[in-house]
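FORM 12-B: Structure-to-Sequence Request
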């Protein structure tokens, strides 16, 4: 998706600070010398699957949305397990994800695809704008000292996993089992931010551009049913129907049977049948996205159209020089009318979206 929301100076990548992150992507090339052993490959696949669950079931569905309850020891294990994915600590992750839901697909959204695919997929991580943790957004989590400790030393889990990969499968285990699987895990997770807002189908009329994608669901253990999720974020189950693959939900169900977690929230029948796009419900998210594009196109045409008129009039010399002022004045008036109409429509859609969000939060 082309960028329709302009970036600020804070959104630009900090290449110096991001150097370790970028270098991490190069390390797997060392497999040319270490080779790829069967043990390393198995370790890498298992590490990907297990850590993906800690992100989806732990960082996302538990810490970000509190879609189920867990004893403190299980809560701590979910937090520590999540750190092995090297996506910072649970408080940082949850605070940013909650902000994403609060401002989805607006200028305040931390990784809206309206700011371009690159930004939504990876650029936002490399910027300085999102390095800090907003503790005010995760007061319910920050009150636990063990979570604050895990947050502070969030690098420990990754170091321990790297050491384990080397002990289990040698240099190939470290390069392939740890580094390569971590890079794959990063980009698998990032597809939810980027692809799941531009690829797939919309079942529900939400205030954002979220979509359901079986491909993203396969890569992320069920997170690809993103339109379902934005429709009812409190649900521990994101594949609302039996045919929607959701391995994270299956694991959580198993944990509930073992009494490791409890009170798994699921969407009530009336929620699953509400706000369906196919019934003609106003799709506010897509309307706003289209109006945002229109506003960006009109703004971009301001300079382009002005230059075109100027060049066109100048090319015929003095023959029609007298009409230039009137023509430019008329174009300016028409452009202002168009801009006002687009801005007014976008403002109305935004107001409607805010009211919908408030209604859903109070429901």
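FORM 12-B RESPONSE
SEQUENCE OUT:
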């Amino acid at each position: 998706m082309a960028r329709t929301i302009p970036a600020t100076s804070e959104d630009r990548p900090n290449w110096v600070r991001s150097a370790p992150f970028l270098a991490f992507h190069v390390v797997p090339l060392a497999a040319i010398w270490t080779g790829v052993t069967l043990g390393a490959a198995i370790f890498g696949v298992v590490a990907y699957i297990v850590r993906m669950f800690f992100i989806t079931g732990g960082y996302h569905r538990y810490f970000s949305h509190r879609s189920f309850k867990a004893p403190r020891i299980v809560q701590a294990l979910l937090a520590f397990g999540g750190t092995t994915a090297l996506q910072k600590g649970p408080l940082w992750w949850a605070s940013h994800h909650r902000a994403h839901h609060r401002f989805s697909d607006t200028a305040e959204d931390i990784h809206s695809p309206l700011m371009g695919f690159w930004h939504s997929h990876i650029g936002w991580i490399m910027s300085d704008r999102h390095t800090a943790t907003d503790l005010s957004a995760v007061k319910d989590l920050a009150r636990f000292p063990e979570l604050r400790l895990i947050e502070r030393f969030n690098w420990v889990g990754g170091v321990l996993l790297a050491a384990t990969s080397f002990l289990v499968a040698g240099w190939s285990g470290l390069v392939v089992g740890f580094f390569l699987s971590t890079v794959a895990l990063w980009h698998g997770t990032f597809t939810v931010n980027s692809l799941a807002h531009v690829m797939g189908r919309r079942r529900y009329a939400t205030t954002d551009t979220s979509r359901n994608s079986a491909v993203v669901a396969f890569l992320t253990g069920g997170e690809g049913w993103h339109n379902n999720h934005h429709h009812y974020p409190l649900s521990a189950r994101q594949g609302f129907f039996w045919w929607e693959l959701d391995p994270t939900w299956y694991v959580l169900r198993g944990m509930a049977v073992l009494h490791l977690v409890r009170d798994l929230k699921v969407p009530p029948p009336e929620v699953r049948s509400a706000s369906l796009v196919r019934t003609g419900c106003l799709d506010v998210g897509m309307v706003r996205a289209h109006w945002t594009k229109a506003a960006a196109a009109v703004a971009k045409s301001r300079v382009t159209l002005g230059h075109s008129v100027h060049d066109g009039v100048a090319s015929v010399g003095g023959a029609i020089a007298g009409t230039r002022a009137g023509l430019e004045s008329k174009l300016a008036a028409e452009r202002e009318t168009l801009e006002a109409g687009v801005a007014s429509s976008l403002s109305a859609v935004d107001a409607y979206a805010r009211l919908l969000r408030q209604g859903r939060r109070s429901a």
